Amino acid sequence: MPQLDKVTFLSQFFWLCFFYLGFYYIILKFYLPKISRILALRRKKLGLSQEGIMSLIEEKQKVQENYENFLSKALVTSKSLFNNFFSRTTNWLNKNATSINKTHYQNVNASYIHFLGETSLSQNLLLYHASQNLPEKLTFKMLLNNLENLKSKAVNSSSTSKLQVSTQETKKLKKTKK
Known about the structure:
- F-type ATPases have 2 components, CF(1) - the catalytic core - and CF(0) - the membrane proton channel. CF(1) has five subunits: alpha(3), beta(3), gamma(1), delta(1), epsilon(1). CF(0) has three main subunits: a, b and c.
- One of its GO terms (biological process) is proton transmembrane transport.
- It is a single-pass membrane protein.
- The protein is mainly alpha-helical.
- The protein has one domain.
- It contains 3 helices and no strands.
- Helix 1 (9-133) runs parallel beside helix 3 (159-177).
């Protein structure tokens, strides 16, 4: 092989070492300092960006805590306002319902009691007159019919119609007695 020739081997080895050391020197003096500066700059930028990232993360956490505090305060405030308005509304409704019950239902209650008095009076008068003038069997039969009529009409009609029916029945009974 020509590379291992003894005559040219030493010169080939010399030139190989010369170019290798020259290449090493050029890389060491020119390219490695540039590469080291670029790497140092990258490390510095990376460090700054990591610090920036850390500061952004801390700022994000602070904003999130402030948001949660604000949201919890807003929820507490809205709940208290809702409860306040609800209690005001309930009090207003109770007050108005009480006043309405006092005025409107008082009249209804008085008319109902008046109706009860009239019906009991008419029944007592009917019993009194029926027992004096009619035979006993006919009296009981009329009383039962009147009671059944009163029960059915009490369920189906209002208090004013009941008053009219009871007065009409007493008039009919008076006519039958004559």
